[in-house]
Q: What sequence folds into this?
């Protein structure tokens, strides 16, 4: 009996058993990717556009060109941060679809600090950083409280709050915050140069890249090597079991959502201080939702969402070139993105069966 | 008086598309499947209905196309969730994206097209009644359909065998299977029916309400429908009331704007969404008993 | 496996209807494999009209698999099922039902949110569009009267007691005019006198010409109403025939194998060296998470060095005892004491820190994280014994898991396996091993041996007795009255959240306990 016990616990699955599943899922993913692109090309073909030419030009203008690669890194900042905004609460079992709204509120808060708080110039950027996180975090906090105290499902409430946040920003940029010197367009005045996120690479890649990479690294370390990360995973795995083992589930749910929202808020802050230089209506082109999908694609892990965000970044940059080149609406690439996601969802083994 | 009349009429006009989508989602959720992609089904219906109407000249063919489009979109979700076991929320959102992308792409040549849409059809005699006449009996045909569907759906769910089977599947797939029902078949039909109704709702939007096409014109109505189902505690009649409430909020805001009342349109734009959240807060507490048990697993992240 | 010594009158009467010569249902060479487990091994059995045929075996012997194949839940890999002389192939429960097989499930397949009428209408489909409520109502009234299955058709199933729900389950099975009726462990949820009523119903059904198949692991029931018996062990038929040819010992031997049949079950030798610093609920009124008040002014005390048993019918507040001690739910009045300290206002983790361990009612649903490995699941121990620092060193987790597995009462699965990929029994064992650890000084065990095989059951009982000898305080909540009698120093009966009686070791009267468990109604 004793010998049996020890040998069974010492046995590790042989190497091939551990590598093979990863290789298989990688192969499956490539299949999904290729399949998605083919279907997308075919859809374009139906309408008379040369689908494969379009794909080719998307590739040429994104991964294959220096400028394209830079643009991918630029997109990595909002995509990656919004993906993390979904991934972090997801580890605790929460579904955060509110990245979009949290992004907007982070941008709003950062704008307030920069233009209207009267803070000393040297502190503008760091304070904007804090404000961005606080704005997004507080907005997500509303969703968290609705869930914890009111039992309102967070997927739905965070979704609805997205629309509210967009209107909040609209109210300010059309109204009290409108640029007094410019024409009557919905944006604020330009931020002072001290409040601009410095460019670190090429012409448009800002220090926001440091932020997103730091978030990825932090995610990895926390979930793998800390007790907090372990407990979060327990909450996400079985909240009832977590409660019974002494974990304070409400706190973990709240903070995981709040931190997720803060990260999305930082994306908003990076957008207004790094790319736009001001707050305007419609600063996000579905970053929040794309981040959500990237998180699912990446299995909510730091590595996974990083790769997924890069992939979506490449597709998005390619899509921008489609708009310029072929005159197709940029949101056409949503088709490709959702095809890939469907492919992955369909290929994961989750077969539900009754009986045998 | 006329303000109330205008708001009431507007409530019905603005609410009927949401009402149809809500009915569809009630059917789907009663079978235990939540479809966040209602937005995608609705917009697919709106777009394809508009395109087909523009091409054929007949809005009725357009309506038919809209129903098919919504059903086709929903069948993707059904396949993902029922046959492949995918997470319902992720699949639904992916469907929304697919819908938004496809319709943006397919609809772009039609953005400034004019169509022979669904005009209001006043019901003879009834529409001449004072006040009630113009508020209730002077609408497009799809709105009348929306009103008739409410009680019809209620009867279906609670008084027929198919409705009972549907509810059973939504409560417990195992119990339904043991009772000889084919749960997967029921769920497929429910989700696809849901999509078809959402498509019909989209048609009302593009063929009757605005008689135009704009990328993303559903503007979150699909999500409102999902929330309304929970607000309605999965009952079709309460769903009808909820959709009218939503429509009322939209109409109220429009009327205030038209009368030059100085409230920022953006603040008013927020109200439907805030209202839905407020209502969810209240009803999630009360409606615990009518929550289809099968759906609970989805919200706990285990379904 | 113990027998039920409750004095159920043995009425192995001759059936009133002569069994026809040909069996109405037979299986030949029936085999079913699940991955690497042979759940049914070449089974050949006959079932006759007007007879009760008991399928006997301990948990995990394959009884459930057999009937699930008879009812179309599973498809057999080999062999055939013969109905009225013709081979049949059931693809789903609907098929089986159409051919005249009815099944009463162990875990009821009723839908709580629907009424009795609706639940029965679900199976009594007439193929029409409109629901024929009055027609079904009539049929229910007929069947109720004939077999003594009183129930209110308009009631919602969730409001019914367990006994009433079982009646609905039986009505549901009868509503489709079956000729064969399968009952899967029907008495597992009933109190002793309710068992007697059920056996009565079974006899009536038999006398009316049904072929009754009774799945059970309790010998007492077999002797009370069966005419024919077949014994399964590890998926195979070890013996069977007409009941009159067997006695208790021979059946036990067939069920468990010669050796195990004679091995002694662990039993307590009585309490000694009782110490303070146990745990107690003092005048506690408790509100559960769903808002219902489940305990009223209750007083229960467990001293160190004793095992106190709680006998109660499911749903009478016993689960709340664990909740109140753990710290979930709400204490409206009274005090909770652990180890001499008043912990009423303290958090779950504080109480766990004092050495409290809870074996949950449903270890899989409430105590396991399917997405994590076995190793990680063992580490979810509420800070007792591990995870002291905020840094998680993987090597540390590995080491502690090894230690835990060595000290476990039974062998654990491979530590790196994902818990969700294991069988239910294995998951249960992992949770048990985690809770029955070294640091536990105060234990609340909710039916820890439910569904476990004999070896693991005995290992758990030995561990409980071992803990008791080491001076720990144990509260054992169990639906198995025999288990309570064997292990406990005191038995407390709970009904509707109140203590209805206490029995010391020497004055345990199972019939009286059963009576109190169901509210004192005979």
A:
């Amino acid at each position: 009996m004793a010998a049996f016990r020890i040998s069974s616990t010492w046995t590790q699955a042989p190497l091939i058993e551990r590598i093979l599943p990863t290789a298989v899922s990688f192969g499956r993913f490539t299949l999904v990717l290729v399949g998605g692109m083919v279907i997308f090309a075919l859809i374009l073909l139906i309408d008379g556009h040369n689908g494969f030419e379009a794909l080719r030009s998307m590739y040429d203008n994104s991964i294959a060109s220096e400028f394209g690669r830079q643009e991918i890194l630029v997109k990595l900042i909002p995509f990656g941060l919004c993906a993390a905004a979904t991934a972090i609460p997801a580890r605790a079992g929460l579904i955060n679809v509110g990245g979009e709204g949290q992004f907007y509120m982070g941008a709003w808060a950062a704008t307030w600090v920069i233009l209207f708080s009267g803070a000393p110039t040297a502190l503008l950027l760091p304070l904007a950083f804090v404000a961005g996180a606080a704005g997004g975090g507080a907005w997500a906090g509303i969703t968290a409280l609705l869930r914890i105290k009111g039992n309102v499902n967070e997927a739905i409430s965070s979704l609805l709050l997205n629309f509210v946040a967009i209107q909040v920003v609209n109210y300010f940029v059309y109204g009290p915050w409108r640029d007094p010197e410019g024409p009557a367009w919905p944006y604020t005045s330009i931020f002072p140069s001290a409040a601009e996120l410095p460019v670190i690479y090429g012409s448009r890649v800002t220090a926001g890249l440091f932020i997103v990479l730091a978030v990825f690294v932090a995610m990895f370390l926390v979930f793998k090597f800390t007790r907090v990360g372990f407990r979060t995973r327990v909450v996400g795995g079985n909240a009832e079991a977590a409660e019974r083992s002494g974990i304070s589930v409400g706190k973990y749910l709240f903070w995981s959502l709040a931190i997720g929202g803060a990260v999305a808020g930082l994306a908003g802050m990076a957008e207004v201080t790094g790319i736009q230089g001001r707050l305007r209506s419609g600063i996000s082109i579905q970053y929040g939702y794309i981040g959500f999908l990237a998180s699912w694609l990446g299995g909510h892990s730091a590595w996974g969402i990083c790769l997924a965000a890069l992939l979506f970044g490449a597709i998005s940059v390619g899509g921008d070139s489609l708009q310029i080149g072929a005159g197709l609406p940029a949101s056409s690439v949503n088709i490709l993105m959702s095809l890939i996601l469907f492919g992955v969802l369909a290929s994961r083994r989750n077969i539900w069966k009754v009986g045998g | 008086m006329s303000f109330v009349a205008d708001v009431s009429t507007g409530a019905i006009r603005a609410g009927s598309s949401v009402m149809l989508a809500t009915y569809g989602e009630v059917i789907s959720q009663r079978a235990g499947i939540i479809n966040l992609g209602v937005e995608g089904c609705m917009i697919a219906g709106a777009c394809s209905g508009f395109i087909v109407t523009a091409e054929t000249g007949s809005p009725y063919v357009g309506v038919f196309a809209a129903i098919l489009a919504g059903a086709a979109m929903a069948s993707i979700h059904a396949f993902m969730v029922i046959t492949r076991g995918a997470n319902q929320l992720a699949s639904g959102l992916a469907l929304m994206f697919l819908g938004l992308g496809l319709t943006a792409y397919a609809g772009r040549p039609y953005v400034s097209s004019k169509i022979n849409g669904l005009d209001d059809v006043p019901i003879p005699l009834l529409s001449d009644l004072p006040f009630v006449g113009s508020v209730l009996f002077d609408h497009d045909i799809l709105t009348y359909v929306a009103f008739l569907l409410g009680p019809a759906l209620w009867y279906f769910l609670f008084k027929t065998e198919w409705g009972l089977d549907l509810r059973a599947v939504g409560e417990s797939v195992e119990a339904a299977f043991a009772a000889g029902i084919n749960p997967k078949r029921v769920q497929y039909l429910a989700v696809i029916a849901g999509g078809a109704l959402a498509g019909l709702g989209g048609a009302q939007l593009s063929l009757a309400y605005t008689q135009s096409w704009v990328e993303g014109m559903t503007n979150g109505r699909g999500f409102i429908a999902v929330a309304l189902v929970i607000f309605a505690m999965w009952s079709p009649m309460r769903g009808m009331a909820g959709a009218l409430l939503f429509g009322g909020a939209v109409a109220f805001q429009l009327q205030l704007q038209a009368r030059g009342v100085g409230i920022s349109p953006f603040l008013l734009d927020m109200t439907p969404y805030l209202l839905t959240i407020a209502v969810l807060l209240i009803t999630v507490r009360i409606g615990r008993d009518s929550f289809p048990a099968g759906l609970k697993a989805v919200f706990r992240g285990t379904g | 496996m113990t027998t039920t010594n409750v004095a159920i009158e043995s009425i192995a009467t001759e059936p009133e209807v002569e069994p026809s010569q040909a069996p109405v249902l037979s299986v030949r060479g029936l085999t079913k494999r699940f991955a690497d487990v042979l759940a049914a091994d070449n089974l050949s059995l006959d079932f006759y009209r007007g007879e009760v045929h008991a399928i006997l075996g301990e948990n995990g012997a394959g009884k459930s698999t057999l009937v699930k194949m008879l009812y179309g839940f599973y498809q057999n890999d080999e062999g055939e099922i013969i109905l009225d002389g013709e081979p049949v192939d059931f693809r789903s429960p609907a098929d089986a039902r159409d051919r005249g097989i009815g099944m009463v499930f162990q875990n009821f397949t009723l839908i709580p949110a629907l009424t009795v009428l609706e639940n029965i209408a679900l199976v009594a489909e007439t193929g029409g569009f409109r629901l024929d409520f009055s027609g079904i109502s009539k049929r229910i009234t007929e069947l109720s009267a004939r077999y003594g299955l009183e129930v209110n058709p308009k009631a919602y199933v969730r409001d019914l007691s367990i006994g009433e729900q079982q009646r609905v389950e039986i009505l549901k099975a009868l509503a489709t005019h079956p000729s064969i009726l399968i009952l899967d462990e029907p008495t597992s949820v009933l109190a002793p006198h309710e068992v007697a009523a059920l056996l009565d119903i079974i006899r009536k059904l038999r006398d009316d010409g049904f072929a009754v198949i009774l799945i059970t692991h309790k010998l007492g029931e077999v002797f009370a109403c069966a005419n024919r018996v077949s014994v399964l062990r590890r998926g195979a038929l070890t013996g069977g025939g007409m009941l009159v040819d067997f006695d208790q010992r021979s059946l036990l031997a067939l069920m468990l194998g010669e050796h195990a049949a004679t091995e002694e079950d662990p039993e307590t030798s009585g309490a000694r060296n009782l110490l303070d610093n146990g745990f107690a609920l003092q005048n506690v009124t408790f509100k559960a998470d769903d808002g219902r008040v489940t305990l009223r002014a209750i007083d229960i005390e467990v001293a160190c060095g004793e095992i106190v048993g709680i006998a109660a019918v499911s749903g009478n507040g016993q689960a709340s005892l664990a909740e109140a001690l753990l710290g979930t739910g709400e204490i409206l009045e009274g005090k909770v004491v652990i180890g001499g300290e008043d912990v009423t206002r303290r958090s779950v983790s504080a109480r766990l820190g004092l050495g409290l361990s809870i074996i949950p009612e449903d270890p899989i649903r409430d105590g396991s994280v399917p997405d994590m490995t076995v190793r990680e699941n063992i580490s979810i121990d509420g800070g007792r014994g591990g995870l002291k620092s905020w840094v998680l060193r993987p090597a540390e987790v590995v080491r502690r898991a090894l230690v835990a597995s060595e000290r476990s009462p039974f062998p654990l699965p491979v530590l790196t396996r994902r818990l969700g990929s294991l069988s239910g029994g294995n998951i249960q064992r992992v949770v048990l091993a985690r809770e029955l650890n070294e640091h536990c000084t105060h234990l609340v065990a909710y039916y820890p041996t439910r569904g476990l095989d004999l070896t693991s059951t005995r290992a758990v009982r030995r561990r409980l007795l071992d803990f008791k000898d080491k001076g720990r305080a144990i509260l054992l909540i169990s639906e198995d009255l025999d288990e309570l009698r064997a292990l406990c120093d005191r038995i407390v009966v709970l009904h509707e959240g109140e203590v209805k009686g206490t029995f010391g070791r020497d004055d345990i009267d199972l019939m009286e306990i059963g009576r109190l468990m169901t509210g004192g109604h005979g």
